[in-house]
Amino acid sequence: MSLLPALRRAPRETSHLRSAAVTARVGRWLGICFGIAFLTGLVSHYAQNPTQPVPFPTSPSWGYRLTQGLHVTTGIACIPLLLVKLWSVLPLLVRGLPSGWAARARDGAERASIAVLVSASVFLLVTGLLNSTQWYPWDFSFRRSHYALAWVAIGALLLHVAVKLPTIREALGRDVDDTALDRPEAVVRGGLSRRGLLRSTWVAAGLAVLATAGSTVPWLRRVSVLGVRSGDGPGGVPINRTAAAAGVEESASSPAYRLVVAHAGTTVSLTREDLLAMPQRSEELPIACVEGWSASAVWTGVRLRDLLDLVDAPRGAEVEVTSLQERGAFRATLLQGNFADDDRTLVALALSGEPLDLDHGYPARLIAPNRPGVLQTKWLSRLEAVT
Predict the structure, then answer these.
(1) Cα-flanking dihedrals φ and ψ of residue 70, to 5°?
(2) Are residues 144 and 211 in the same domain?
(3) Do residue 281 and residue 256 come from a single domain?
(4) Rounded CA separation 297/319 (Å)
(5) How far apart are alpha carbons 207 and 73 in whole angstroms?
């Protein structure tokens, strides 16, 4: 017996739930979440740029923690929203082509733009989710590809909204159960109403956020069963990259360790004991990583500005920061002048009242307000002011 007639009668193609009314309402929230993720992603990308025409601000100290937390949580919320939206429009995507070359060209162009939008969105959500777990089963640069595809996706989204805006406005202006915009064959009613489907979608998106947001919001950690960081770690701060993984166990623990501070031919070489003998300052600062997790802690150490004064580095000078680790994209970073001059920027020697753990950057690490975690360099070896 042929399956084709049965497939044509299948509820998944004729369900009244697959309607413009449902699609428009889910799409509205998907667009909002996607827009927030896009804008906060731009903030994160800019914060990591070594050259910044407008310096990234040092205040509020929790600013990056907020924007990156929003970036990841809205991205997570997009997953169930996108799945429901795709389910609701699937019959339109697989329908036959209209008659006439002009109509076929328009329809083909619209489907092509949707294919670009869907492909880019799926790429962003999947790679972003894997990045949050620090699993990289690919060889390309996550940061560059994520940034490039975000622009492709947002462009395709704006084009899609512009094309569909009359339908969207009409669907949102009508009651969710109104059938005026339904496909003729979408008449089969099941056990779930449109309002029930929408409520289920909101609940699914909310649960997805709740299950992961504990990585950013400490008081949600007990219920965020899928949070990639629980807050565990020395001093209550999680660890991404261990000393063993960075290959610095021997050099960081060596009695021969020195922190070199340099500017314009003037060089000072300091042991950890020398650093401990200088005036110590404590600051409560969050550390927030691109994966979405963050934690606040009290860091104690020497003001970076005090160290730069030892070599007569002028205010406003940028600082090249180098780690003991010999490999890695962020073994050397550039600290902008406004961060270098901020009194809260420290060469940290202790965390939560205890000496730095080796995995947290012992013997010394950088900690600055409102700065991405990947730029809070651990296992410092050299600080060179450049003008």
Answers:
(1) -65, -40
(2) yes
(3) yes
(4) 24
(5) 11
